[in-house]
Design a protein that fits this description.
It contains three helices and no strands. With about 70 residues, the chain is mainly α.
Length: about 70
C-alpha cells in the first residue's frame, strides 16, 4: 500500500496539503482498513454456519462444532 506522503511531491505551482490534512487522511485510512479487516473476519467466521446447520446431528452437537469454529477466530 502506498502512503500519501510517497505520492506527494512539489512541482511548479502545485501546493502540498498541510500536515494536518495528511494526518486526517492517514487516520481515516487506518479506520477504513480496520473496519474492512473486521468485516472480512466476521464473513470468514460465518462461512461454516450454513454447512454445519445442514449436518445430520443433534442441535447440541452442532453448537459444539460451531463453537470449535468460533474458537478459531480468537
Amino acid at each position: 500500500m502506498v502512503s500519501l506522503e510517497e505520492c506527494a511531491y512539489q512541482h511548479g505551482l502545485l501546493m502540498l496539503p498541510s500536515r494536518e490534512f495528511h494526518s486526517k487522511i492517514k487516520l481515516s485510512l487506518l479506520i477504513l482498513h480496520s473496519v474492512m479487516n473486521v468485516i472480512t473476519d466476521v464473513m470468514i467466521l460465518c462461512l461454516p454456519i450454513r454447512f454445519v446447520v445442514r449436518l445430520q446431528m443433534k442441535t447440541a452437537r452442532k453448537l459444539q462444532v460451531l463453537g470449535a469454529f468460533g474458537l478459531g477466530g480468537m
